[in-house]
Amino acid sequence: QRQMCIRDSPNSVTTLDACTVEEVYRCPSVYGERWPPATSGLQEQTELVVTERSFAAVEPFLVPHSGAGAKRNELAYKEALKPQFIERTKAGIEREIKEMTRKRFDMEKAAPTEEEKASALQARLVLTLKNESEPDWSVKARLVAKDFKNRRFVDPVEKYAAVPPLKAVRMLLAACGHKRVSTADLVTAFLQSHEFTGGRRMLITWWCPVSRTQCYAWCRGFIYGCIECGAQWANTYAEWMCEIGFEQLYNAGSMYVYSSPSSTETGTGIELQKTRDITVSCHVDDPLIVCGSKADEDWFHAAMEKRFDVKFHTYLTKAVSYTHLT
């Protein structure tokens, strides 16, 4: 299979005796239009003799696709259990189960009965390669429900998260002038939406490729892959924005303008009323924040940190482009 991949390369390499890293990357059956790679110094590397030892570095990039609709960096279970992947696969699954336990699993509810297990919602651990072109590449695991395979009617209002129209985003960026532009990346945003009410619980089941067992867990709310997950997150974020003083626009979905006055104290102790200059355009779980001052920007990012689990914040500077923000 490796010989076939390399033989399809533009340089027509037919053997594994001497082949450059560049030629391995060029394999059309693996990366296709993703050539050239992002690593600028790749072409400057010397020839690499493809031996058993050298394939330890190249092997992560020769992962076959698992199905017609699979992503290019999706890792099949058969490949994930190979020696070069197994440890990082275990680490990725452990991180995901730990995150699900903290945000979704109900560990206090009694174990499901056989009858309940028979009606559990099917889920799957989706494994993908992260930073596959870097030395510190990792395997990311995401527990995804197979809810969209269930043929049941769900009102579109309860299914989709409204997103800002492109014209509104362009107008926002065009009008920002000398204002401050930033964004934030939330950690598993859908798992931070509202939980079920009235003691409702949802039983899910999935196959763990590492332990080779069928797992079951009660969930306190929707998880990735559930039909209502996107709308539930949008409602959660909209409610929080309105609670802290924002007003949602009616003619542009998921766009918010700060409307509530805030009090500040002067040196004489007299409180003055002013309104924060903040506009937020949120594309599902990616907020684009435009503020009139650094104080307003710091206030909003601190409020997000207090309410949600945020991975990092990105601020538009002379060294950061709009492309990096997106």
Low-confidence stretches: 1-70
Compressed to H and E, one letter per element, the order equals HHHEHHHEEHEEEHEEEEEEHEH
Share in helix:
25-40%
Number of discrete helical segments: 10
Evaluate the radius of gyration: 24 Å
Beta-strand share of residues: 15-25%
Main sheet: strands, sense, barrel: 6 strands, antiparallel
Overall pLDDT metric: 77
Q: Could you give the distance between the termini?
A: 37 Å
Molecular shape? globular
Describe the structure.
The chain is 27% helix and 23% strand. With 326 residues, it is α+β, with helices and mostly antiparallel strands. The chain is globular and about 60 Å long. Strand 7 and strand 8 (255-258) form a beta hairpin.
Task: Give a quick rundown of the structure.
The chain has helices spanning 2-7, 21-25, 55-58, 77-80, 83-103, 114-118, 166-175, 229-243, 294-307, 322-325, and strands at residues 74-75, 121-130, 138-145, 180-186, 202-208, 213-219, 246-248, 255-258, 261-265, 271-275, 278-283, 286-291, 310-315. It is α+β, with helices and mostly antiparallel strands.
